Structures are given as structure tokens and as C-alpha cells.
Amino acid sequence: MSKLTVQARDVEVLVLDVDGVLSNGLLIYSDNGEETKTFHPADGLGIKLLQSQGVAVAIITGRLSRIVEKRAAELGIKHVIQGREDKLQALEGLLTELKLDLSRVAYMGDDLPDLAAISQAGLGMTPADADPFVMEHADWCSRHPGGRGAVREACEFILEARGLLAGLRQGFLEGTGL
Amino acid sequence: MSKLTVQARDVEVLVLDVDGVLSNGLLIYSDNGEETKTFHPADGLGIKLLQSQGVAVAIITGRLSRIVEKRAAELGIKHVIQGREDKLQALEGLLTELKLDLSRVAYMGDDLPDLAAISQAGLGMTPADADPFVMEHADWCSRHPGGRGAVREACEFILEARGLLAGLRQGFLEGTGL
Amino acid sequence: MSKLTVQARDVEVLVLDVDGVLSNGLLIYSDNGEETKTFHPADGLGIKLLQSQGVAVAIITGRLSRIVEKRAAELGIKHVIQGREDKLQALEGLLTELKLDLSRVAYMGDDLPDLAAISQAGLGMTPADADPFVMEHADWCSRHPGGRGAVREACEFILEARGLLAGLRQGFLEGTGL
Amino acid sequence: MSKLTVQARDVEVLVLDVDGVLSNGLLIYSDNGEETKTFHPADGLGIKLLQSQGVAVAIITGRLSRIVEKRAAELGIKHVIQGREDKLQALEGLLTELKLDLSRVAYMGDDLPDLAAISQAGLGMTPADADPFVMEHADWCSRHPGGRGAVREACEFILEARGLLAGLRQGFLEGTGL
């Protein structure tokens, strides 16, 4: 078993950045002041699959948006930390609350503010279109870009390391689903 | 005549998933609570061409959206089933109503919740950007991604199998259209 | 001088389809009933350059949208025909009004409803992502997709055929612009 | 040290066009009259990094939009000049105010109205998807398209020329950030 697989197998919480990871890296502004974000249903299903197997999912983002709350609620994500540029400190606060060690965390981010968390988490992950310098410090990089399948891939990577992916897929083939 | 052509020729209803198939795979959320979906006019024309030749088109989606009703109404799609994650059961209910057998159904979906329906329909179809595991269980995969031409290709594949595509195109060349 | 250059040189009006040509091929619907279209500033500049040299620009579209009126007004396009699926007949009506022959028309469209007009116009044009069957019947195809530079390329092709492009570019280099 | 590096090292203000540079080149119009623009968080971080090192950032755009004011305010950009098609003159006015010479300006634009400014600025820059004729007259072209990383690359290019990029990245790795 590779070191990377061991790291993935031991993950107890997947922590996600929003812009460029759970959402694509676009800030969409209307001239009436409205903001819009886009999400991907395949990422949402990945998160639900992971949660169904007892792995928690959390969000830490530097910006503030009601949209993130709505999407988190849809996906049953309970830990949503917004408005924190100091992501490593925010992550450490979350881990104290969850009584978990950094070695049990998979952290997925795409840019410099995520770098310290990616570098110190047990499993540092980036989407395919992350900042190149951040990518160099990650343990794992997805083939799909952020907001378009990167999170799904990350979830499946963790499920596969635990030997759970094939069984979950078989359930859908038989029509029993989740 | 290939087995695939025979399957396509016998199709009496094309059943479509929405997110990732009829719409591109993006959930677009505004901070005022509004949701947005994108559709493709070329897909719409494909659906109208298919309907004009007596093949029905239906929609089954796991989510709920007024946008889907609006787009379905524009395209003359009468059978619209929303909010059903159990897609195979929803499909079976529709077929009872239409007095049709699964062998006469083309079902196009892109992710695990569509897998049982794709695998049991007479013609299982996926867009080019479907989940790889789902693609393995489909009979046919489009070259265009979902929400950007995949449905048009599916409609033309069925029309071609029935020997109807060339005549329809000729009508447009002569300016008589549909 | 190639036959294509001669056709382009003699063009007195460029007629554009909207969805898939002047706008990208996406219908963006909100659940409050709002519709959105996207345009490209580079296409807009191409239209202004062409008009500045005495070539008219017109729009014929099968759909109906206030957005098209707004964009046409911004670009100084006076001839805007909406809600016409019978595009060749709509084009013929426009030409009667403009006292022009079909041989003096460049028509750019992307799908089957445009096919008769493309095939009969003096210069039939399509964007890079047009329907393949329609492309086969066009005289010219852009390298850029619709709504993302296809119209700019079409305008520059006509200006180049008239020997006007280099001079226009030089004006911008010298800061005199249009 | 290459001539290009010297040009970049001496830059005291980075001046940005909006559509096609700071925003992607799409004009998004709703049928209720609303306009939307998209921005990229990675570009925003690049601007903040550059400003933190004493290089000013300014905006000159031919269009008028409240969205630009909002995005500029978020990023701490004080010099925002809108509604000016005569960009070189607008730039000269700004330089008088800032008491700077054209040789100390990096100007990034993507189309013909930017050409004179790009050609006369100390460092003329374009995104990867700029007009080809404009690109020929630029000193530097990004690998990323406008509105999706081009501005970030431009900022990092200037920081690298000043020997500041590695230190800034190291700060993020250590979790001290900006």
C-alpha cells in the first residue's frame, strides 16, 4: 500500500476551500449588487458518498457568502467557517472542536492562502487548475478543475483508499443507491 | 445493421436527465436565493426533430426547479418527473403510463443515480463528460458534453437509425424546415 | 483574387443569427423567469469597424428577447428581426427593404434553421462550433466559436477583402481609433 | 538581466483594462436590464500582492459599470477611470496626476482600443486570448486568458523581476500570509 493510500485511508475529515475548489474560480457580480457562484452536482454526490461512510466534510473560506450556507445545507455539511484568510488557524480551531489531529485531515485548496493548511494536513489536495506553487506542496492533485469535478475525485480517492468505492458503485448499478 | 442501430431504431421514448445532460452540469446560485440553469438551442432543435417523427421525449430529474418546467414547455415535453432520486422506479412508473417496455426506451444520464436506468434501458446513453463508471455501462456516448450538444447528438443518432435524418436536413436546406 | 475574396468584397450587408453566433449558444434561465445572454466585446468592435466602412449589419433570430434589442442598440444595428424561424423569407423581406440582391449578403448562422439562408446568400458563413451539416454548406467558417469572436473574424474577413483592415488597425496603433 | 526584466522591475503602476483582462471577455445581459461580470480570485490576490510591495494598480475601461467600482473597492484599487475609449489620453491624464512617466507603466489590454497604450507603455502586456494584432505589439503575453489568471501572471511577473515573489510565497507557506 502506497504512503499516499495510507494517508487517504486515515482521513476522518475532508476540509474544502470554496472559490476554485467547491465552486469554480469565478466571482460573478451583477450591477444590482448580487453575487453568484456555480457548483457541480457530481461534486455534491461525492460529498454525500463520503459522508455516508462516516467521513466528515467541512468548509473553510476567506470570503463571506449566503450562497455557501445554502450549498452546505443542501449537502449536509455542518462545519462551515467563512471570512477567515488565516486558514491554518481556522483549521486548527475546527480540529480542536472535532478532537482530531492534523494527520487525520484531507485539506483541498487552490491558492496561496491555502498553502500552509495543504502543507501541514495529513493529505494536502489541490484541483487541476490550482496555483502551480501550491500544487508543488500538495500530496495529490485532481485531473478535473475546481468546481467541475475536483471535489468528486477527491472524495472517490479517499473512498477507494478505504476499499469502499466499488461497493458504492455497485449499489447504484442495482438501483439501491445510497 | 449493427445491434446498436437496431436498439436505436426501436426507441419510442427518449428519457433525459437534466443536470449534466439537458443542462450543463453547473448549479448556478445567487445570493438572493435565485437559481439558474443553462440550456442549448441545438439540443432543443434535436428534441423537436425527434418529436416531429413520433418519438416521445420525457424528463426525469432528482432535483426540483421551475426552470425545468419552463424549458420543457418551450420544447413541448409533456412528461416531466422532478424530485426523484430513484430514477429507475420513476422510469418504470412512466413506462406503465405510456404502456411501453424498457426495451423501447433510450435513457440518457451522466452520474451514478442514472446508472440503473442506463443499464436496463433498451438504449443506455451518456454525454461525453459523464462519470467514467457510468459510461462503461452505457451503450452509446456522445462526443459533445452535457448541456452543449449531447442531447442533439442523441436525437440525431435515433433519427439516423430510422433513416430519417437526411430527409429532415434536406427540408431545412430547401427552406421548408419542420 | 480568390472567388471567396470577391464574394466578401461585394458584401453590402452582414446578417447575423443571435444564439450561437452573436451570443454564445447558451440559453441561461433563472427560476424567477429571467433570461440572460452573453456577448463578446471583440465581436461588438468588429461590427462597429464594419459599419464605419459603410457595410450594414442586421440581425435575424428565431427567438424573442429584449436583450437582443439592447445589444443591437449599443452597436448601432438598426435592422433587428426577431421571432422568425423562416429565416430565408425574413432575409428576403429585409433585402426588398434595403433594395439589395442575395448576392450582396453575408449571412452567418450556426444551425439548420439558418441553412437555406447560408446556402443562398452571396457569402454563407458559420462559426467554428456550428452544426457540421450546416458547415458543409457554408462558404466560410471562423476559427472562433459563436459568441466568442466568430463575428469579429467575419467582420475582419470582409474588411480584409476590401483592403481596409490594415488601415483601421494602424489608426488604433496611432491612437486615433475609429 | 533581460531588457524585459528591466522593464518589469521599473514598473510603478500596473494599469488594467476590464473586459477581457480583469474580467473575462463576456458581456452578460439579463432581460431585466441587469449586467453581470465575472472576476477571478487568483487575479485579486495578485493585485493585493503587488500593492503590498508598493506598486500601484489602476483601471481604465471604455465601458461604464457599477460592478467595476465594487470590484475595485474590494481590491483597494483607487484609480478607476471608466467610459474612456481614448485610453492612451486617459492614461496620460492619470500619469500627470501620479507624476509618473510612461516608461514606469505596465499596461495590460486585449483589443484595438488598448493598442496605443500597450505600444507606448514601458511594459505592454496582453492576456493569452488578446486580439492577435494587439499581441504582436505587446512586450509580454500571459499564458492564462483574460479574467482567468492573466492579471495574476502579470503581477507575479513584475514581482519576480523585483526579486520579491519567492519571499511572498514563503510567507504563505509559513502561514503568515500578507
Features of this protein?
homotetramer, alpha/beta, Rossmann fold, six-stranded parallel β-sheet, two-stranded antiparallel ribbon, 8 helices
Please provide a written account of the structure.
The structure is a homotetramer of 178-residue chains. Helices cover 41% and strands 17% of the residues of chain A. Chain A has helices at residues 3-9, 41-52, 66-75, 87-98, 115-120, 132-136, 150-161, 165-173, and strands at 13-16, 27-30, 35-39, 56-60, 79-81, 105-108, 123-126, 140-141. In chain A, the strands form two sheets. Chain A has a six-stranded parallel β-sheet, with helices on both faces. A two-stranded antiparallel sheet of chain A has the order 2-3. With 178 residues, chain A is of the alpha/beta class. Chain A has a single domain (3-105, 122-168), classed as 3-Layer(aba) Sandwich (Rossmann fold). The first copy, chain A, is built from eight helices and eight strands, in the order αβββαβαβαβαβαβαα. Chain B binds chain C through residues 24, 28, 30, 34-42, 44-45, 65-67, 70-71, 148, 168-169, 172-175, 177, and chain C through 19-20, 25-34, 36, 63, 85-86, 88-89, 110-113, 115-116, 119, 131, 133, 137.
